[in-house]
């Protein structure tokens, strides 16, 4: 299986997350507004973020994973984006999370499109899903902008969520 190394968009470089990203990763997950619609909890401390990143095995197991999104101009960590494989559901999903100062700048759309393109064309994935809480209008707009279509509602820990999907076009 081809394993992801890095991807490039007009404004960003996306690369594998490493334990050196722990501080940025930890800070990103401290913001309650960023985590509001994710179901995730903040890391207890910086070491917890390092441990998570050290043990993150999506790249090795499945050739995909969440990627650090780095600004080409200043090398700043903007957030993350990428595909993740869920073995229990036998599906790939697209996910993204950015620091608030980078919201509404098209970065989630730009990086998600690149990740989906990689998944379809390099990894030969046939279908990718995206999940969002119904109230997370920003993420739903991104899923729609990248071509995903609403599939069904789902229960997300007592809240209503939406599943979107995109299937590779046969050429």
From TrEMBL:
SUPFAM superfamilies: Acyl-CoA N-acyltransferases (Nat) (SSF55729). The lineage of its organism: Bacteria, Pseudomonadati, Bacteroidota, Flavobacteriia, Flavobacteriales. Signal peptide: none annotated. Residues 12-171 form the N-acetyltransferase domain. Gene3D superfamilies: 3.40.630.30. It comes from Gaetbulibacter aquiaggeris. This is GNAT family N-acetyltransferase. Pfam families: Acetyltransf_3 (PF13302).
